[in-house]
Amino acid sequence: MVHLSRRTFVASAAVAAGAAQVVGTAAAAPARPAAPLEPADPAVAGPVPLHWIEGGAPAVLAGGTTWGVPWPRGALAAEQEFSLTADDGADVPVQTWPLGYWPDGTLKWSGHAISQSAPSAESYSLAPGTPAAPESEVSVREEGGRVMVDTGVITAEFRSGGRHVLTSITRGDTVIAKEGVLVGSSQNGIAGETTAAIRTRTFQSAVESVTVEQNGPVRAVVKVTGTHGRDGTAWLPFTLRFSLFAGSDAVRLVHTFIYDGDVHKEHLASLGVAFTVPMRGELHDRHVRLAGADRGVLGEAVRGITGLRRDPGDAARTAQVEGAATPDPSTWDQRVTSRLHWIPAWGEYSLRQLTAHGFEIRKRTAPGQSWIRVDGGTRAAGLGYVGGPGGGLAFGLRNFWQLHPTELQIAGAASDAATATVWMYSPHAGPMDLRPYHDGMGQDTYPEQLDALEITYEDYEPGFDTPVGVARTSELMFWALGGTPGAETFADLAEANATPPLLASPPAHNSAAGVFGSWSPVDRSTPQREVWEDRLAAIHSYHLNQVEQRSWYGFWDYGDVMHSYDDDRHQWRYDVGGYAWDNSELSTDLWLWYHYLRTGDAAAFRFAEAMSRHTGEVDQYHLGQWKGLGTRHGILHWGDSAKQVRISNANYRRIHYFLTADERTGDLLHELIDSDETFMTLDPIRKIRTEPYEPDRNALSLGQTTDWGSIAGAWLAEWERGGEEIARTKLINSVTSIAALPNGWVQGDVRYDLDTGTFAPQTEKSVSVGSLSSVFGLIEVMTEIVDLLDDDAVRAKWTEFCRLYNASKDEQKEATGASWGNLNLRQAYSRATAYASVQLEDPQLAERAWQELRTGHAGYPDDHDFGTQRIEGPAVLNPVDEGRLSTNASAQFGLAVIACLALVGDALD
């Protein structure tokens, strides 16, 4: 495991002084301030209001919650403590840790956690100070290959080997759940495609390591890694993170697995997490709960005593319906008591969500007996329960219907030990089919592949359309309850499972803290501003609604959106090569995150969060020869042969990480700091080279715009987090050496040294620039890098690039020796013009930026219709709202307007 250290950045002065020369070895970090600094600006470093992003006060948390808060440069010491106060003045126990640092060593981002046992409130106030201590702190004990986590309510035991990923969960003296294991199955064929017998193979987890990542006092995190199966049969590497909170009976699990099978020989047929739940008491005192839609709850007993021909009595019936222990059967009507053994015991339940639009519940008495249909519905909340008055386990999966096909299963509830299984991929759905969708169609050579690209926009290459190395992360919840929950309580738990409550600082504070570059909170203070705000709201609302109307859900698909629209079919081009799934093309992820930053809107956050979970896992390789690379947009998320860092782009993950303190997203960021090494493995422009090329690690072809900007985001994130020093070294070396090139970011035929992170110097001016050069996060990340380094040469050369992209050909030629040609995406680059306006204090550039936006080259001009038209059957399968909008244009339009409002908004007025 890689542990990120807590060392701070090199001081700003040291960075500035050393930026003009190549940094050879990392300079020593300065000592941190011994005491908290005086706040630089009390408005942003003093008490910060926090609110639940969905509003109100949640009835219950998903065990607890974690979030991040930014702080202005120089305001707070790196190890600052914080106090949290509820809106009624109550002190709230809070755990704090540093997430990121400014170059001067002061705190940039703080991570926080509270427990579901904390005082509930609609809002809180976070301020520098001494935190309140929880009544029962989380304690972690490690001994003899075991890790014991005690929350004061439950104790969880982990062991460093074996097949159990969580050995037991105990509440008091009662074992609520034990023998937690990852389960699954595969098939060697797909029904209907082979006459041979289909062989099914089952597998379970094999634990390789257990690591304590946090140890309280409010939150403990235990990381478990391993594979599914052992020795020669091991596959599907996994990383699990279990979070437990002070005074809480919940365990949150973030589950990640990487696919590494053979799509032609072994089809993954099911994947889940199972626990054994000891069953106690009489069958009529054992209960099952399953959450449906809209707070609906199915509540039943294993052996029901309601609805019988004979009535046991009001007290018995009421107790069973409420989940309480029934009175002694001797007090019932004896016509029931004497015949209890004739009442079937329903020991097995299944809630199957095989599509996004419907679930069905079935039950049976025992294996080998018939399943009977119980009921069905639309979209289940994804929570189940099995147990009795003495205790039981609630178990669930977040985004249950969105990530279909899923299932909750209870088995053996009529025996001494039930099994509760969360199926992240249901065994009743049929195996995953991850094979290529076509046979190559004769595209055996680069010329043939490039010709096919001209018609389908798909960049195909044999052997590249593989999912080996992609991943999926799921979030699960478990509550070790002291008894069967009532319907209201269970519905509250189901809501927390489906939409885990999250605290957030407001847009005004985040903006004032100076994080994430050029953006500002929503401002409708003038008629002109309102026009642009309405347009931003319209494009965001449209794409958000398309997810629902087009049913962009499913295990591998949820979180992504489509790339382009087919007006003739009234359909997104889901089946047309590179026009199908978007896969982060032209920074869709960034646009969605900046929209949330400005608005603080809950729906915007959830939209962006789902995309980050998807694009960071499914659209990126995490093992194998293409580890660190992402896949270009296409019909299958991994199908296109363009494997590039522009898609695995760390700039698309940073915002999610710092807002949520999510450890898995932190893994993804760290994973990418060596992604420049991938250029030794795969040449991204291999198909269009005109001269022979062999990669040389000391003279590597690595573009200083699209390629470098994506990797620079990973180095920046690692530097911010105080991680490996090579990230800071390479970031400074690379950006200063680019700025030293005669034409900086448009200099042609550059060469990069992998060992030092330096671009080789040149003396003669040359020009090589493309429309896509800066629309994969480069503009946004450079805005931050320039401010952090405060290097005059870097600032000047980057400003020159921003000024010249949309400038006249004469201006370009005068500055760089050549015209930049007929460039595309001029509306998108209006934000570059706006940046240059601010740096050069040039109001004419500000006016030019707004004119570029209004002209709408390769985007949305001023007279564009942002409305929609309702299309209904029989023209379409389902009614849809159709707009004249594309994902690429929306993403770049959104980012451009957001930046221009922040940088040169005054020019509107």
From TrEMBL:
The keyword Transferase belongs to this UniProt entry's keyword annotation: no
Q: Which residues form the PcRGLX/YetA-like C-terminal alpha/alpha toroid domain?
A: 500-908
Residue stretches making up the PcRGLX/YetA-like N-terminal RIFT barrel domain: 48-128
Give the record's keywords alphabetically: Signal
Which PROSITE patterns did the record assign? TAT (PS51318)
Q: Signal among the record's keywords?
A: yes
Domain annotation PcRGLX/YetA-like central beta-sandwich: ranges: 138-494
Q: Which segment of the chain is annotated as a signal peptide?
A: 1-28
The protein here is known as Tat pathway signal sequence domain protein
